[in-house]
Amino acid sequence: MSRLTSPLPRLAAALLAALSLAACGGDDCVINNTVAGSMAFYLSDGNPCQITDTLTVSVVRAKGDSVVLNRKVGATGLTFPLGYASACDTFVFHFARLGVSDSVFIRHDNHPHFISLDCGTAMFHTLTAADCTHRLMQSVSITHPEINYDAQENLQLVFGN
Amino acid sequence: MRRKTFSLCLAISLLAPLPLRAEAGAPFFRGVSVAADVFGWVYPIFVSDAYYNNEVSVSANLLNRFFPVVEAGYGHCNTVGELYGIRYTTAAPYFRVGLDYNLQYKNPSPAGFIFCGVRAGYSRSTYDVSAPPVTDPVSGLAVPFQLSAVPCRALWGEALVGIRTHVWRGFQLGWSIRYKRLFSDCTTRNGNPWFIPGYGIHGTETFGATYQLIWNF
Question: Environment class of residue B201 by beta-carbon count within 10 Å: exposed (0-12), middle (13-18) or buried (19+)?
Answer without folding.
Answer: middle
